[in-house]
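Q&A FORM
Asked by: J.P.
Topic: structure of UDP-glucuronosyltransferase 1-1

PROVIDED:
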Amino acid sequence: MQDLEGSKFDAVLTDPVVPCGQILALHLSIPSVFFLRGLPCSFDLQAAQCPDPPSYVPRTFTDNSDHMTFIQRVENLVLKASESFLCNFAYLPFELLASDFLQRQVTMTDLLSHGSIWLKRMDFVFEYPMPLMPNIVFIGGINCGKKKTLPQVSDFPDKIF
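REPLIED BY: S.T.
REPLY: Here is the structure written out as tokens.
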């Protein structure tokens, strides 16, 4: 820790799925930049204070769009309530670690709310539109390599039976 404190870093670039980088950033009192696709249970939206109404924003893995029927909206609400319970249980070890290390009581939302910039590897072209805060920047397409064009092949018959 002394080496890190003496290094005078400007920021921490981290993936908040495992919040150890964020705990370190808070300890060193430096800004953090999150690089992620998304977090379970919409922790990213909660921490960045984005509107996340279950009647509009579909939960992950539901295959719902932002145009849901009444039944899908009810399903979305029930899923949001259950994932909140499950994720709080799953991230409890990190909350205990952070509380012990930072010597104050913190939750996952508290930890992640100190993120300066959220670089999200997604794009509205592939996702549904949702309300966002100004410190969330979409960098979708960075994982897409430029593909070579397919060669023209004339070995196919004119008619396919």
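FOLLOW-UP: The helical segments are 2-7, 20-28, 43-47, 70-90, 92-102, 108-112.
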